[in-house]
Amino acid sequence: MTDTPKVFPNPAQRQFIESMALALEAAGLPRLAGRCLAWLLICEPPIQSLGEIAAALSASKGALSQMARLLAERGLIERVPISHPRRDYYRFKPGGWVTYLQQWLEHLRTLHALSEHGLTLLSAPTLENQQRLLEAHDLFSALEAHLPAVFAEIEAARQARQPAIPSTHPLPSAAEA
Predict the structure, then answer these.
(1) Fewer beta carbons within 10 angstroms: which end of the chain, N or C?
(2) Three-state secondary-structure class, residue 80
(3) 95: alpha, beta or left? (left if phi > 0; alpha if psi -120 to 50)
(4) For residue 148, how many other CB atoms are within 10 A of its CB?
């Protein structure tokens, strides 16, 4: 097996890749990480070697290796064990978006707690300084209260679609293993 992708991105796919990269860069991820994730969302086959990803994106394997590690840490992609030696293979991780956003929820919980703590530190509470903290507190409180249900709904919908989507993955799914 070579590291040359079977199909290079067409112009519409390249536009999608770059748009996704810019959107994820605005959310704090490196642009190359966004390009890598975007390719793994639309590529065929869905499992790609690092070399195939690099060739498809015209990027270096070294830089992509760092981005793949970052995306895996964020729960968006995963390494796939394949018997070809000395090659790393990746795919978009099922449920990856929810995992990624659950990490953000943890940050929001921290900000919620900090806004509550900030309210206790006001030595001379005024409407103005209370409002600044209450705005943060109320937002983070609402997100913390409602996002878990949204995540559960999305995961339930993803699970319900699973039997309807034929697997092109050569490895058994977690349910089959």
Answers:
(1) C
(2) strand
(3) left
(4) 12
Whole-structure pTM value: 0.79
Contacts of residue 151, Cβ cutoff 8 Å, sequence gap at least 6: 98, 101, 102, 105
Q: What is the domain class of 11-92 according to CATH?
A: mainly alpha
Structure tokens, 109: 């919980």
Nearest to 102 by CA among 123, 121, 83, 74: 74
Q: Quote the CA–CA distance of 173 and 171 in Å, as a whole number.
A: 6
Residue 164: in which H helix or E strand, if any? none
Mean pLDDT of the chain: 88
The single-letter code of the amino acid at 58 is S
pLDDT greater at residue 128 or residue 17:
17
User: Tokens at residue 66, please?
Assistant: 């760092």
Mean pLDDT to the nearest integer, 154-162: 89
CA 92 to chain centre: 9
**Position 176 pLDDT exceeds 50:** no
Q: How, if at all, do strands 48-49 and 89-92 pair?
A: antiparallel
- Higher pLDDT: 83 or 52? It is 52
The greatest distance separating any two alpha carbons of the chain, rounded to the nearest whole angstrom, comes to 69
